[in-house]
Amino acid sequence: MSRVLALSLRDLKDIGRDPMLMIAIVGPLLLAMVIRFVLPFASQWLEVRFGVGLMEYGALFACLLLAMVPLMLGMLIGLVLLDERDEDLLSYFAVTPLMKKGYLVYRLASPVVLSFVLSLVALAAAGLAEYSAAQAIPAVLMLALEAPMFALFMTVVAGNKVEGMAVAKAGGILLLAPFANYFLQDQWQWVGMLLPTYWAAEAFLEPGGRAVLVGFVFHGVVLWGLMRRFMGQRN
């Protein structure tokens, strides 16, 4: 427990020193404020000028907001993992009582919990809390798994922190999945099904459907594969 506490305090110091890591935490909340206070005015202006309102797409904006939270947190943890790998700290943890497996559990469990809590806070802050718990919680739980998933993906694909930043930017493609779910016709839905965020969006838009079961299985398989790849790396 003391080793986990020491790691947590070290992480807090690192986050406080790095503006980019701070953005990963506050970014979703800032977006929530934009949705709550700016979107209604923008929607009203567009409706007056062009007859097109944005508020009717509230569910889509909710999906995008919820998808951004684990993506940002996953980027944060991925950069931390890459930084510690560059400093050869992973080899150090492997020979401590915490061991590499314990270290990995800590690194992956913390963003899951933080993502779940921060997603619900962001959803409420955005003024989108009209969605029921039955609708939001399965999708939020599923999305929370994407934080460690994206962190591990960055770590196994990128060779260093610079490459990790490039992978993090490319990860923005995950935000396209809610659009595929929302706008594409049935025969084109397979385009989005290849991305984990698609299943979370469908679980949110159609609670109680197949997406909850399929989505959790999909996330579990991908996460398991990435964990095996990470554990097999030589650090």
UniProtKB/TrEMBL annotation:
The chain crosses the membrane at residues 20-39, 59-82, 103-129, 135-159, 166-184, 204-226. Coiled coil: none annotated. Keywords: Membrane, Transmembrane, Transmembrane helix. It comes from the Bacteria. This is Fluoroquinolone transporter permease. It comes from Tumebacillus lacus.
